[in-house]
Amino acid sequence: MLLSIQDLKVAFRMGREGGEMKRQLAVKGVSFDVPENATVALVGESGSGKSVTAMSILNLLPSNAERSGAVLFQGRDLLQASARELLAVRGREIACVFQDPMSSLNPVLNVATQICEPLIKHLGMSRKQALARAEELLHEVGIPEPKRRLWSYPHEMSGGQQQRVMIAVALACGPKLLIADEPTTALDVTIQRQVMELLARLKETHKMSLLFISHDLGVVGEISDQVVVMRHGEVREKAGVERIFSQPQDSYTKALLACRPSLTENPARLLVIDDHIAGRTASQAAKAKDPEAPVILEARGLKKSFFFKTGLFGKTEFKAVKDVSFKLRKGHTLGVVGESGSGKTTMGLTLLRLHEPSGGEVLFEGRDLLKLGGPEWQRMRRRIQVVFQNPYASLNPRFTIAQTLVEPMEIHKIGASHAERLATARALLNKVGLDDTALAKYPHEFSGGQRQRIAIARCLTLKPEVLVLDEAVSALDVSVQAQVLNLLKDLQDEFGLSYIFISHDLAVVKFISDEVLVMQNGDVVEQNEAQALLAAPQQEYTRKLLGAVPRGYQAAAA
Question: Is residue 70, in this structure, part of any structural domain at all?
Fold first, then answer.
């Protein structure tokens, strides 16, 4: 057995209270094995303890963490290893790939330096030998023009390429175990597919084991041999991947399998984890919207170009959005899908004039938003709002939730007094599923899903008619994602909101959208009613996107 985790407990010291040290138990007696040349997946929602369990192996935890039990790696207990011994294991025998490569890669060092460092430190290579090996590694992980890209910096590469560089760094010393912590969560479906296939191929080539951490059982089913399901710091179920998918024993495992949006079904609401555990059944199919509802927003030939300096006096034009046209009807949702770099986010930001357009028209109730200025544009802005992907970055960390919600109302002079605005903020928090106690708290006191609810409530303070949702649920685990998607549908029904829903997740887009726009390289390549487009896509690019969606063990076996 390569790795054996036995009765692992992890507690975090939270400070003294009444003279006694207060501790929060995050992992509660977890046990499982990782055999040689096998892929074991740790699955669960955010807060289940899966990442804490994995990071305990190499003690990559904060200084207030306390571990007990045993972590046996080739018979050695790593919990008893000294700092010097752990340093020799990290990167050499056990390596890690994390979710966000931009926070893992050093932004001020080029790729060559970051790959060469472990080669020189652990294997004693010369700089010349390390550079040659680094080029081979970049080629192995599928980076084009590896010799040239060695001298690139992380910000000069796409998200998928950054993740490939992280994998190259991890593989540099030929580790026996690779820990991959949510390595595909932030990637679009085609890049996600490429990274999954790359990890599977490298595992076979290097004869190593893979500990794969994810909240998405669709992904897990395609890459794993064994699955360990965790919740609230405990193992709920562990078995081979086939049994987990065909005959799950635990109610929580069944719930995880069932709460993700489906490409084949179209319920009115998604069931969340607690619904499944309580035995509640799915609601009937969603009702069709009025196809003749009035058009509230129309884009005609929308363009956006960026210009880059070349040489002393020259400049190069990059056309990010090219002649995009669509109509958004009142109470409807337009889904916008495409790979990273397809122009979908740029199109959404250009609609809002967060990027100034290079051409075209955006008609809102017959008026061209792109020609409005001054107070007129300010009044119009409150009617079209945006929810961004990352609620951690879009909420001011120094504002309480009350300040966050009241400030937009003060700017746009909504409400007669501070007390009235506070009452509105309180009512909106209740509407998005949070209680009054949230008003006095700060963003860091909430989970990702709760922060996204607060971001949605902030938009609603201005009583908008159109919401642009830019990857608003992509960073959330499946159960929280289901809650937010249900919330968006409820708000749409109650307030008659219209959504432009930008996402790389086709299953999510199918659930929430009435019409879908498919973008590639700044162009609209296909546009149709959601059910029809996903059931019978006309373009090869759309079929490629659909083919890349993770579908679990059955699809992988087929």
Answer: no
Q: Is residue 58 part of a domain?
A: no
Yes or no: say if 238 and 228 are a contact pair by the CB < 8 Å rule: yes
**Which 3 state secondary structure label does DSSP give 290?**
coil
257 with 347, same domain: the answer is: no
d(CA 308, CA 316): 5
> Residue 194 in 3-state DSSP?
helix
For each of the chain's 558 residues, which pLDDT tens digit applies? 899 999 999 999 988 887 888 999 999 999 999 999 999 999 988 778 998 999 999 999 999 999 999 999 999 999 999 999 999 999 899 999 987 777 789 999 999 999 999 999 999 999 999 999 999 999 988 888 899 999 999 888 877 788 889 999 998 998 999 999 888 776 777 777 888 888 888 899 889 999 999 877 778 888 899 999 999 999 999 999 999 988 999 988 888 887 777 777 778 888 788 887 777 766 666 677 888 899 999 999 999 999 887 777 788 888 999 999 999 999 999 999 988 778 898 999 999 999 999 999 999 988 899 888 888 888 888 899 998 877 777 889 999 999 999 999 999 889 889 999 999 999 999 888 888 889 999 988 887 778 888 988 999 899 899 999 988 887 677 777 888 888 889 889 988 999 999 988 888 898 899 999 999 989 999 999 988 888 889 999 999 888 877 766 554 444
At 510, which helix (H) or strand (E)?
A: helix 506-512
The verdict on 399 and 512 lying in the same domain is yes
What's 207's domain CATH number? 3.40.50.300
- Examine the fold and report which residue of 262, 280, 308 is the final residue of a domain before the chain moves on: 262
Domain hosting 421: range is 330-356+367-557
Buried b (16+ CB within 10 A) or exposed e, 157-176: bebbbbbbbbbbbbbbbebb
User: Between the CA of residue 453 and those of 153, 243, 456, 457, 550, what are the distances in Å?
Assistant: 35, 36, 5, 6, 27
Question: Do the domain assignments include residue 99?
Answer: yes
Q: Which helix (H) or strand (E) holds 131?
A: helix 127-140
Same-domain pairing of 417 and 524:
yes
Of 242, 262, 282, which one is at a domain's C-terminal end? 262
Query: Is the domain of 139 the same as that of 257?
Result: yes
Within a domain: 422: yes
Helix axes of 251-258 and 478-495: crossing angle, nearest 10 degrees: 50
Q: Give yes or no: residues 258 and 348 share one domain.
A: no
Asked if 237 and 346 sit in the same domain, the reply is no
Are both 256 and 129 inside the same structural domain?
yes
DSSP string, 365-400: TTEEGGG--HHHHHHHHTTEEEE-S-HHHHS-TTS-
Number of domains in the chain: 2
Can you tell me the distance from the alpha carbon of 12 to that of 247, in angstroms, rounded to the nearest whole number? 36
| Alpha helices, DSSP H, located in 141-232 | 146-149, 159-171, 189-206, 217-223
